[in-house]
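re: ur question from the group chat, yeah i did fold both. here u go
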Amino acid sequence: MSRDTRIAPAAGPTPSALVAQVTPYPTAARAGVDLRLDGNEGLLPAPALLDALYDAGPEVLRSYPDASGLERRIAERHGLDPACVVVTAGADEALDRLCRAFLGPGRECVLPVPTFEMLHRYPLLSGGILVEVPWPPGTPWPTAAVRRALTPRTGIVALVSPNNPTGTTLDAATLRAISAAAPTALVLLDHAYAEFADEDLTPQALALPNAVVVRTLSKAYGLAGARVGYVLGARTLLEPLRAAAGPYPVAGPSLLLAAAALRRDAAVRGFVARVRAERAALADLLRALGAQPLPSQANFVLARFADPDWVRDALAGLGIAVRRFAGRAALHEHLRITCPGDGSAFTRLAHALRTALQPEALLLDLDGVLADVSRSYRAAIIATAASFGVALDAAEVAAAKRRGDANDDWRLTRRLMAERGVAVPQATVTGRFEALYQGSAAHPGLRATERLIPGRTLLERLALRLPLGIVTGRPRADAERFLDEQGIRDLFAACVTMEDAPAKPDPAPVRLALQRLGVARAWLVGDTVDDLRAARAADVVPLAVPAPGEDQDVARAAFAAAGVARTFASLAEVLEVLP
């Protein structure tokens, strides 16, 4: 007897009111992204770090973990008693535990915002009350406003410095003032980015009677995947934190990796120095590109853009993820960009930003973007196959185009026929295809059905903004004939055709177009995944428009899977994002 394993909607159970008031932390990723500059991960650990796991052997997996050794090591680094250190499953778990230990029904958490997203969630999940104090990006820490927000119900004052996502900081005098103003509250200093800041406030915070410091190995030490953080503070403040923990919260392999990472201080110092240099260079570049970066003491830069959605999409199309803060009013015009701390990655980021914001040319595919070939080239594929007894339809041809490696219609026709069990020499297929497409003086071929998709006026407007080039898989004679017949050849400064370079998705024709135009940065608009893959491989922003007759939703899904920066309904929409 088979059993239906589908999950039916729950009719009875409902979530707790505490959980219902928060949303999940966003972790979505775009297709094709390989340079993640949206999560603030740090130094790539050396492979030798894994030796700690091999040396420990399988016992580390069999036994329940013991964090006391790592707590002693951390205590030594800070000159503390081990009882003043609690190791946690990342700084996130530390914040969660602190909220559960020091908040609850009727108790308030005072939080300057915008700041780390989980500090909006943990107080509410603990049953506490969140009291938000505005801290607009680029402004000093709101000392007076925080003081006004303090009440006898205040259980925690959360201070994030350097702040995420703004990168701004508070100073020791402010820390002392808040501690004195809230003597019965816990002053929580989230110091996740302390290594990158001008001043480490840990000693000053630990000198206060009501303060704890949360640190992490996810950033400067590059162990985000291991999830190891820790809390420093007086023994009396940490005992409730221990009580709020589950048993063995940090995995044994993570504890071993953390201990090994703490021996890499020289590598970490070098990484921090690179990040600080990149941070200054990135801010300078962003200003030169017309953005407004905020001063930062973290491993990232937050900047305001005229069109942040476009910059995010264009960078994603080039394989780079940056952080957009959807739904957060104070940050709706901003992007946060992590400094990679790696020379080649930073060079790639800088080129991508320039390409997104200051392109030097616009490249266009011909078929499907300029020329409607739904009744010519695509019809020729179907007619050629039919002449050899193979029945194809437009949907099958479109699906083949979406799969990719289909820029050469002659070869695609032969491949589709072979998939149906009909093997014909390529030269024979090509000859039949050309006869149907080209026609004769007495019988016009399918090419006579082609029409120009955008009007000349639109192309003229595009050409006024940027030099235009064509990158097509057509033979040169066919391409130039179409441009001449439509009266648009004069608008294009370069035309790369079948004879000039390997077919897309090879990036060679795109790079050749850049060379012929004498530029280094461009966008490309295509109608197939091959166009997009060629553009991405050539460091050109990949854009798409569905070809006439294509199912828009199906085409958009295929383009998204291929890593498109943005899909437009028509070429006219490209004007809206051109600088």
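okk and heres the other one u asked abt
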Amino acid sequence: MSTYLLIAFLILTVAGALWLCRVHIAAWNLGFPQPKHLLTVTRDIDVPMRDNVILSCDIYRPRTEGKYPVLISRTPYGKTNREHDYEMFARLYASQGYVVIVQAVRGKHPSEGDFEPYVHEASDGHDTVEWAAQQPWSTGRVGMVGFSYLGSCVWLAATQPSEYLKALIPVFTCQDTYNIWMENGVSYVKDILFWLYKHHNHDVRPLAHQTIDPVLGQLPVCELDEKIGEKLPLFRKYMKHTMPGPFWEKRSSSHLIDQIEVPALYIGGWYDPFLIHGIEDFKKLCASPEESSRRLSRLVIGPWAHNPKLRFKEMKFGPEARFRHQLPRILEWIDAWLKGDEEKPPTGPTVRYFLMGKNEWRTSHCWPPEGVETRTLYLGSDGRANSHQGNGCLRWEPSQEAGKDRYIYDPSEPVPAIGNRMLYANGLDGPKDQNVFTGREDVLVYTSQPVAEDVEIVGSVAATLHVSSSAKDTDFSIKLCDVHPDGRALFLLSGFLRMRFRNSVSEPELIRPGEIYKITFDLGPIGHAILKGHSLRLLITSSDFPNYARNLNTGRNNETDTLYVNADQTIYHGGEYDSHITLPVLSR
């Protein structure tokens, strides 16, 4: 044998050995238990739905004959999509004594039918659970797991009760589909357009940010689909349904929560857009009657964006923060509910959350944790961006001196969404430095003095502002930042409000130009320690684009209109106008 043939033989031998051992290697790398079973994989298995539409499944199960509990994941992104790596996930859990089913949802190759996002997932998910539970290799105990859209499939299937469904693992999602694509009457315009273009009429097709970003500033918004080369009827439907109602209820599970009787392990991220609503889902489950098993649900929150593999250059959280460490916890959860004694449910802390800043995991028996006290920071002095280093301030005591700060909001020059919780942020999500905005005249900046001791903010942050505008309708956007001693101001939370929806999304009211209004923001939950020597900073402006669709300031329809006007905005503070931010501070 020649030297070259010998080298080729050795390379192929090593490659083959690594291929055969890939699950063992992955388990070792992930801190996952080593495989207990060899596997058999059967692909493109037909599963009939109640209307005789056939959905396609890949089934991973132990090679040893017997009955095993079942774990189902339903996806619109392709059963063998390498970006999502369903196959390795399925092999890991099947190697621990599970039958893992990865199913292509209705209308996604090779499943039959038409894909209409969310509409069929409740019935199709239920039918798949029923089918799986009655197969000869099944113990009849089934769990469902899913990330993002797959997590919506989990929640929706759980609304149709099944005696076989015993455990849920929804990850980075929420029950109300409206809140996935809209917030209080305002659309997440780029996320909607990007997702529908990639996934609605096709299995998966490429779309570059360089293609979509330049068209987002064009008007009208409802025709942006044509600007990127294809008319998307569902995009136009979404733009006509920017408020909650029957359209979204047909696609949601939140109004059917009383029908969900299954405990859930909910996993979310501090920089994921769905966390605020996911926590509310979790709290509703835990508020169940004593006899309901769903009250035993669990919550895990880590320092992750919607892509949990994303590493943040601006802030390091340490190796223990990596999302992969949750895979063994998912195994513990399904072992308890699918293999354990149903009369002896799992014990332990209800909530596990990562405290950023101190970069450590904490546990609690509730959310927010016990011992949280409210502290208030009040706006004061001149908040103009070019004076952010000294004059625009946040004080722990209210000021008796009244003041006001002004800026002009021009819809043609919106403040870009840098530091956010978008789905398709193109690397701009998470704790980005907000100093890029301090030179803008349309951003007001208020900074506190450095704290003398660590301040642990754990819970939901709120803000109250007193504002006026020259427009009939406009937006206000705020961001909370952690200012480090080196000057970096890293994004923590944001809030957004369209003035016509200040009192009610279902009954909008325009504003009177020049009149002062008191408005409130829910910035959502956080677990972050402001360390000694750090400061808090609040940014106020009127856009966060393209995270939120722009307000054109006319009082007309922002989705169909092509005209806009500038708005002269004023923020009032001090005296009778106690504009402030409310922090949930953990006392020890």
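fwiw on the second one: The CA atoms of residues 261 and 291 lie 10 Å apart. Residues 9-20, 386-390 have pLDDT under 50 and may be disordered. idk if thats what u expected
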